[in-house]
Protein backbone atom coordinates (compact mmCIF):
# COMPACT_ATOMS: atom_id res chain seq x y z
CA UNK A 1 0.00 0.00 0.00
CA UNK A 2 1.70 3.16 -1.24
CA UNK A 3 1.53 6.70 0.08
CA UNK A 4 2.40 9.82 -1.91
CA UNK A 5 5.55 10.07 0.22
CA UNK A 6 6.59 6.54 -0.82
CA UNK A 7 6.05 7.34 -4.48
CA UNK A 8 7.88 10.65 -4.16
CA UNK A 9 11.07 8.81 -3.24
CA UNK A 10 11.31 7.30 -6.74
CA UNK A 11 9.41 9.86 -8.84
CA UNK A 12 9.83 13.24 -7.08
CA UNK A 13 9.06 15.48 -10.07
CA UNK A 14 5.96 13.59 -11.19
CA UNK A 15 4.55 13.39 -7.68
CA UNK A 16 5.27 17.05 -6.99
CA UNK A 17 3.26 18.11 -10.04
CA UNK A 18 0.33 15.88 -9.09
CA UNK A 19 0.45 17.08 -5.48
CA UNK A 20 0.09 20.68 -6.63
CA UNK A 21 -2.91 19.80 -8.79
CA UNK A 22 -4.57 17.92 -5.93
CA UNK A 23 -3.92 20.75 -3.48
CA UNK A 24 -5.57 23.23 -5.83
CA UNK A 25 -8.31 20.75 -6.79
CA UNK A 26 -7.35 21.26 -10.43
CA UNK A 27 -6.68 17.82 -11.83
CA UNK A 28 -6.36 17.60 -15.61
CA UNK A 29 -9.04 15.60 -17.40
CA UNK A 30 -6.35 13.46 -19.09
CA UNK A 31 -2.80 12.41 -18.20
CA UNK A 32 -0.17 10.64 -20.28
CA UNK A 33 2.30 8.80 -18.05
CA UNK A 34 5.42 7.86 -20.03
CA UNK A 35 8.31 5.83 -18.69
CA UNK A 36 10.01 2.45 -18.90
CA UNK A 37 8.50 -0.59 -17.23
CA UNK A 38 8.98 -0.71 -13.48
CA UNK A 39 9.12 3.06 -12.92
CA UNK A 40 5.81 3.13 -11.04
CA UNK A 41 3.35 4.48 -13.63
CA UNK A 42 0.48 2.22 -12.59
CA UNK A 43 1.11 2.72 -8.87
CA UNK A 44 0.96 6.50 -9.31
CA UNK A 45 -2.20 6.15 -11.43
CA UNK A 46 -3.93 4.13 -8.70
CA UNK A 47 -2.78 6.54 -6.00
CA UNK A 48 -4.18 9.42 -8.02
CA UNK A 49 -7.47 7.55 -8.33
CA UNK A 50 -7.56 7.06 -4.55
CA UNK A 51 -7.01 10.77 -3.91
CA UNK A 52 -9.67 11.54 -6.53
CA UNK A 53 -12.32 9.31 -4.95
CA UNK A 54 -11.43 9.36 -1.23
CA UNK A 55 -13.86 11.47 0.80
CA UNK A 56 -11.82 11.13 3.99
CA UNK A 57 -8.43 12.12 2.65
CA UNK A 58 -6.05 14.18 4.79
CA UNK A 59 -4.78 16.98 2.58
CA UNK A 60 -3.87 15.12 -0.59
CA UNK A 61 -3.24 11.77 1.12
CA UNK A 62 -6.06 9.21 0.75
CA UNK A 63 -7.14 7.64 4.04
CA UNK A 64 -6.52 4.05 2.78
CA UNK A 65 -9.32 2.77 5.03
CA UNK A 66 -12.58 3.97 3.45
CA UNK A 67 -14.54 1.75 1.06
CA UNK A 68 -13.30 3.68 -1.99
CA UNK A 69 -9.63 3.31 -1.03
CA UNK A 70 -10.01 -0.37 -0.14
CA UNK A 71 -11.79 -1.26 -3.37
CA UNK A 72 -9.21 0.59 -5.46
CA UNK A 73 -6.47 -1.26 -3.58
CA UNK A 74 -8.17 -4.58 -4.34
CA UNK A 75 -8.92 -3.70 -7.96
CA UNK A 76 -12.71 -3.85 -7.77
CA UNK A 77 -13.91 -0.24 -7.66
CA UNK A 78 -17.01 0.05 -9.89
CA UNK A 79 -16.11 3.50 -11.24
CA UNK A 80 -12.51 2.74 -12.26
CA UNK A 81 -12.19 1.14 -15.67
CA UNK A 82 -9.10 -0.45 -17.21
CA UNK A 83 -8.32 -0.95 -20.88
CA UNK A 84 -5.53 -3.39 -21.68
CA UNK A 85 -4.42 -4.80 -25.05
CA UNK A 86 -6.64 -7.51 -26.47
CA UNK A 87 -3.92 -9.67 -27.95
CA UNK A 88 -1.37 -7.42 -29.63
CA UNK A 89 -3.42 -4.21 -29.66
CA UNK A 90 -6.15 -2.11 -28.08
CA UNK A 91 -9.06 -2.15 -30.47
CA UNK A 92 -11.75 0.36 -31.37
CA UNK A 93 -14.47 -1.87 -29.88
CA UNK A 94 -12.76 -1.68 -26.47
CA UNK A 95 -12.85 2.13 -26.51
CA UNK A 96 -16.46 2.11 -27.72
CA UNK A 97 -17.38 -0.20 -24.84
CA UNK A 98 -15.72 2.25 -22.45
CA UNK A 99 -17.67 5.14 -23.97
CA UNK A 100 -20.88 3.19 -23.45
CA UNK A 101 -19.96 2.57 -19.81
CA UNK A 102 -19.27 6.25 -19.34
CA UNK A 103 -22.63 7.21 -20.81
CA UNK A 104 -24.19 5.87 -17.61
CA UNK A 105 -24.02 7.70 -14.33
CA UNK A 106 -21.32 6.49 -11.95
CA UNK A 107 -22.34 3.59 -9.76
CA UNK A 108 -21.95 5.63 -6.59
CA UNK A 109 -21.09 9.14 -7.77
CA UNK A 110 -20.62 11.10 -10.97
CA UNK A 111 -16.85 10.56 -10.78
CA UNK A 112 -15.09 8.13 -13.08
CA UNK A 113 -11.50 7.19 -13.85
CA UNK A 114 -10.22 5.13 -16.74
CA UNK A 115 -6.70 3.81 -17.06
CA UNK A 116 -5.35 2.73 -20.46
CA UNK A 117 -2.36 0.40 -20.11
CA UNK A 118 0.12 0.13 -23.03
CA UNK A 119 -1.67 3.06 -24.65
CA UNK A 120 0.86 3.02 -27.52
CA UNK A 121 -0.75 -0.26 -28.67
CA UNK A 122 -4.02 1.40 -29.64
CA UNK A 123 -4.97 0.88 -33.26
CA UNK A 124 -5.46 4.07 -35.28
CA UNK A 125 -9.24 3.70 -35.07
CA UNK A 126 -9.08 3.11 -31.31
CA UNK A 127 -6.90 6.19 -30.90
CA UNK A 128 -9.31 8.33 -32.88
CA UNK A 129 -12.27 7.06 -30.85
CA UNK A 130 -10.44 7.89 -27.65
CA UNK A 131 -9.60 11.30 -29.04
CA UNK A 132 -13.30 12.15 -29.32
CA UNK A 133 -13.60 11.19 -25.68
CA UNK A 134 -10.77 13.52 -24.71
CA UNK A 135 -12.10 16.41 -26.78
CA UNK A 136 -15.43 16.32 -24.98
CA UNK A 137 -14.65 15.06 -21.47
CA UNK A 138 -17.45 14.09 -19.15
CA UNK A 139 -16.67 15.91 -15.92
CA UNK A 140 -15.63 14.91 -13.38
CA UNK A 141 -13.64 12.27 -15.26
CA UNK A 142 -9.93 11.54 -15.25
CA UNK A 143 -8.22 9.58 -18.02
CA UNK A 144 -4.75 8.13 -17.38
CA UNK A 145 -2.81 6.70 -20.31
CA UNK A 146 0.26 4.59 -19.52
CA UNK A 147 2.98 4.02 -22.10
CA UNK A 148 6.64 3.15 -22.52
CA UNK A 149 6.72 4.75 -25.99
CA UNK A 150 5.18 8.19 -26.02
CA UNK A 151 6.27 8.76 -29.61
CA UNK A 152 3.75 6.12 -30.71
CA UNK A 153 0.80 8.05 -29.25
CA UNK A 154 -1.25 10.19 -31.65
CA UNK A 155 -0.02 13.82 -31.51
CA UNK A 156 -3.63 14.96 -31.05
CA UNK A 157 -3.91 12.79 -27.93
CA UNK A 158 -0.59 14.19 -26.71
CA UNK A 159 -1.88 17.74 -27.09
CA UNK A 160 -5.01 17.03 -25.06
CA UNK A 161 -3.22 15.30 -22.19
CA UNK A 162 -0.85 16.44 -19.48
CA UNK A 163 2.36 14.59 -20.28
CA UNK A 164 4.37 13.39 -17.27
CA UNK A 165 7.66 11.60 -17.85
CA UNK A 166 8.71 8.99 -15.29
CA UNK A 167 12.43 8.95 -14.65
CA UNK A 168 14.40 5.69 -14.58
CA UNK A 169 14.53 4.21 -11.11
CA UNK A 170 17.53 5.11 -8.93
CA UNK A 171 20.13 2.35 -9.02
CA UNK A 172 19.30 0.93 -5.57
CA UNK A 173 15.57 0.90 -6.27
CA UNK A 174 16.15 -0.72 -9.67
CA UNK A 175 18.31 -3.41 -8.11
CA UNK A 176 15.69 -4.07 -5.45
CA UNK A 177 13.00 -4.50 -8.10
CA UNK A 178 15.20 -6.96 -10.01
CA UNK A 179 15.89 -8.90 -6.83
CA UNK A 180 12.13 -9.13 -6.24
CA UNK A 181 12.01 -10.96 -9.59
CA UNK A 182 14.37 -13.60 -8.18
CA UNK A 183 17.58 -12.22 -9.72
CA UNK A 184 20.64 -12.38 -7.46
CA UNK A 185 22.12 -9.18 -6.07
CA UNK A 186 25.39 -9.82 -7.92
CA UNK A 187 23.63 -10.01 -11.31
CA UNK A 188 21.18 -7.21 -10.42
CA UNK A 189 24.15 -4.93 -9.81
CA UNK A 190 25.51 -5.60 -13.31
CA UNK A 191 22.10 -5.16 -14.94
CA UNK A 192 21.49 -1.88 -13.12
CA UNK A 193 24.81 -0.60 -14.50
CA UNK A 194 24.01 -1.66 -18.06
CA UNK A 195 20.44 -0.45 -18.48
CA UNK A 196 17.56 1.48 -16.91
CA UNK A 197 14.97 -0.57 -18.82
CA UNK A 198 13.31 -3.24 -16.72
CA UNK A 199 12.31 -5.25 -19.79
CA UNK A 200 15.83 -5.17 -21.23
CA UNK A 201 17.28 -6.22 -17.87
CA UNK A 202 14.93 -9.19 -17.66
CA UNK A 203 15.72 -10.11 -21.26
CA UNK A 204 19.46 -10.19 -20.53
CA UNK A 205 18.92 -12.84 -17.83
CA UNK A 206 17.39 -15.32 -20.29
CA UNK A 207 19.54 -18.37 -20.78
CA UNK A 208 21.93 -17.17 -18.07
CA UNK A 209 23.74 -15.10 -20.74
CA UNK A 210 24.56 -12.12 -18.53
CA UNK A 211 26.07 -14.34 -15.80
CA UNK A 212 28.31 -16.05 -18.36
CA UNK A 213 29.30 -12.70 -19.91
CA UNK A 214 30.21 -11.31 -16.50
CA UNK A 215 32.35 -14.38 -15.70
CA UNK A 216 34.26 -14.11 -18.99
CA UNK A 217 35.05 -10.42 -18.36
CA UNK A 218 36.28 -11.20 -14.83
CA UNK A 219 38.47 -14.02 -16.20
CA UNK A 220 39.88 -11.79 -18.96
CA UNK A 221 40.91 -9.13 -16.50
CA UNK A 222 42.38 -11.64 -14.09
CA UNK A 223 44.52 -13.00 -16.92
CA UNK A 224 45.46 -9.54 -18.20
CA UNK A 225 46.75 -8.81 -14.71
CA UNK A 226 48.26 -12.16 -13.66
CA UNK A 227 48.57 -14.44 -16.72
CA UNK A 228 48.79 -12.26 -19.86
CA UNK A 229 49.94 -15.17 -22.03
CA UNK A 230 46.55 -16.87 -21.50
CA UNK A 231 44.29 -13.97 -22.43
CA UNK A 232 44.16 -14.65 -26.19
CA UNK A 233 43.18 -18.29 -25.59
CA UNK A 234 40.29 -17.07 -23.44
CA UNK A 235 39.32 -14.61 -26.16
CA UNK A 236 39.21 -17.43 -28.73
CA UNK A 237 37.58 -20.11 -26.59
CA UNK A 238 35.14 -18.10 -24.48
CA UNK A 239 34.67 -14.50 -25.61
CA UNK A 240 34.04 -14.99 -29.35
CA UNK A 241 31.56 -17.91 -28.95
CA UNK A 242 29.55 -15.98 -26.32
CA UNK A 243 29.47 -12.47 -27.78
CA UNK A 244 28.07 -13.31 -31.20
CA UNK A 245 26.00 -10.41 -32.54
CA UNK A 246 26.61 -6.66 -32.50
CA UNK A 247 24.44 -5.99 -29.45
CA UNK A 248 26.18 -8.71 -27.40
CA UNK A 249 29.60 -7.42 -28.48
CA UNK A 250 28.65 -3.89 -27.39
CA UNK A 251 27.48 -5.23 -24.04
CA UNK A 252 30.75 -7.11 -23.65
CA UNK A 253 32.70 -3.89 -24.16
CA UNK A 254 30.38 -2.15 -21.69
CA UNK A 255 31.17 -4.85 -19.11
CA UNK A 256 34.90 -4.23 -19.60
CA UNK A 257 34.29 -0.50 -19.22
CA UNK A 258 32.40 -1.14 -15.96
CA UNK A 259 35.36 -3.15 -14.62
CA UNK A 260 37.67 -0.22 -15.37
CA UNK A 261 35.23 2.16 -13.71
CA UNK A 262 35.20 -0.06 -10.63
CA UNK A 263 39.01 0.19 -10.49
CA UNK A 264 38.67 3.98 -10.43
CA UNK A 265 35.98 3.77 -7.76
CA UNK A 266 38.29 1.63 -5.62
CA UNK A 267 41.05 4.21 -5.90
CA UNK A 268 38.78 7.08 -4.84
CA UNK A 269 36.96 5.10 -2.13
CA UNK A 270 33.51 4.82 -3.78
CA UNK A 271 32.96 1.23 -2.68
CA UNK A 272 29.19 1.60 -2.54
CA UNK A 273 29.06 2.33 -6.29
CA UNK A 274 30.84 -0.83 -7.48
CA UNK A 275 29.25 -2.92 -10.22
CA UNK A 276 31.24 -6.09 -9.56
CA UNK A 277 30.23 -6.11 -5.92
CA UNK A 278 31.61 -9.58 -5.13
CA UNK A 279 35.04 -8.89 -6.70
CA UNK A 280 36.28 -6.25 -4.29
CA UNK A 281 39.47 -8.11 -3.32
CA UNK A 282 40.55 -8.65 -6.92
CA UNK A 283 39.68 -5.08 -7.82
CA UNK A 284 41.74 -3.76 -4.90
CA UNK A 285 44.77 -5.81 -5.95
CA UNK A 286 44.58 -4.55 -9.52
CA UNK A 287 43.92 -0.96 -8.46
CA UNK A 288 47.13 -0.95 -6.40
CA UNK A 289 49.24 -1.65 -9.48
CA UNK A 290 47.39 0.59 -11.94
CA UNK A 291 47.52 4.36 -12.24
CA UNK A 292 44.49 6.51 -12.94
CA UNK A 293 46.20 7.75 -16.06
CA UNK A 294 46.56 4.19 -17.38
CA UNK A 295 42.94 3.39 -16.55
CA UNK A 296 41.84 6.51 -18.39
CA UNK A 297 43.78 5.41 -21.49
CA UNK A 298 42.27 1.93 -21.24
CA UNK A 299 38.75 3.35 -20.99
CA UNK A 300 39.42 5.47 -24.06
CA UNK A 301 40.59 2.33 -25.89
CA UNK A 302 37.35 0.53 -25.03
CA UNK A 303 35.26 3.49 -26.21
CA UNK A 304 37.26 3.56 -29.45
CA UNK A 305 36.58 -0.17 -29.93
CA UNK A 306 32.85 0.49 -29.49
CA UNK A 307 32.98 3.11 -32.23
CA UNK A 308 34.76 0.70 -34.59
CA UNK A 309 32.12 -1.99 -34.04
CA UNK A 310 29.65 0.00 -36.14
CA UNK A 311 32.05 -0.13 -39.11
CA UNK A 312 31.72 -3.91 -39.59
CA UNK A 313 35.31 -4.61 -38.54
CA UNK A 314 36.56 -8.11 -37.80
CA UNK A 315 35.57 -8.63 -34.17
CA UNK A 316 38.44 -10.97 -33.35
CA UNK A 317 41.01 -8.47 -34.65
CA UNK A 318 39.22 -5.66 -32.83
CA UNK A 319 39.35 -7.50 -29.52
CA UNK A 320 42.96 -8.58 -29.97
CA UNK A 321 43.95 -4.98 -30.59
CA UNK A 322 41.98 -3.81 -27.56
CA UNK A 323 43.53 -6.42 -25.24
CA UNK A 324 47.02 -5.49 -26.45
CA UNK A 325 46.27 -1.82 -25.80
CA UNK A 326 45.09 -2.64 -22.27
CA UNK A 327 48.19 -4.77 -21.62
CA UNK A 328 50.47 -1.99 -22.76
CA UNK A 329 48.45 0.70 -20.97
Topology:
Layout (H helix, E strand, L loop, with lengths): L3 H7 L1 H12 L6 E5 L6 H13 L13 H7 L6 E4 L8 H11 L9 E5 L7 H12 L5 E7 L7 H5 L2 E4 L5 H10 L4 H10 L3 H7 L4 H18 L4 H12 L3 H23 L11 H9 L3 H18 L5 H14 L1
Parallel strand pairs: 1-4, 1-5, 2-3, 3-4
The helicity comes to 55-70%
Spatially, the strands of the biggest sheet line up as: 2-3-4-1-5
CATH homologous superfamily classification of the largest domain: P-loop containing nucleotide triphosphate hydrolases
Radius of gyration: 25 Å
* Count of separate structural domains: 2
How many DSSP H or I helices? Answer: 16
How does the overall form come out from the CA principal axes? elongated
Secondary-structure element series:
HHEHHEHEHEHEHHHHHHHHH
State mean pLDDT (0 to 100 scale): 91
Per CATH, the architecture of the largest domain is 3-Layer(aba) Sandwich
Which structural category fits the helices and strands?
Answer: alpha/beta
Low-pLDDT runs of 5+ residues are none
Strand content: 5-15%
In the CATH scheme, the class of the largest domain would be: Alpha Beta
* CATH third-level topology of the largest domain: Rossmann fold
- How far do the termini sit from each other? 53 Å
* Strands, count: 5
Largest sheet: 5 strands, parallel
Amino acid sequence: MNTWLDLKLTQPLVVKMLERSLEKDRLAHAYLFEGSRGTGKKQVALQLAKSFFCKERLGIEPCQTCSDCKRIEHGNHPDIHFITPDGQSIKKAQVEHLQKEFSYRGMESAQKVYIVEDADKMTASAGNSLLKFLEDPTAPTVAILLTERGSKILPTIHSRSQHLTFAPLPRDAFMKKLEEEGISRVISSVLASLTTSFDEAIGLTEGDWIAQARSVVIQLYEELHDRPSQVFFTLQEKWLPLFKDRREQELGLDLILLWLRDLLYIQVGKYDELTYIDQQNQLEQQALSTSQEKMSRNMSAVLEAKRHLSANVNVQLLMEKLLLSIQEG
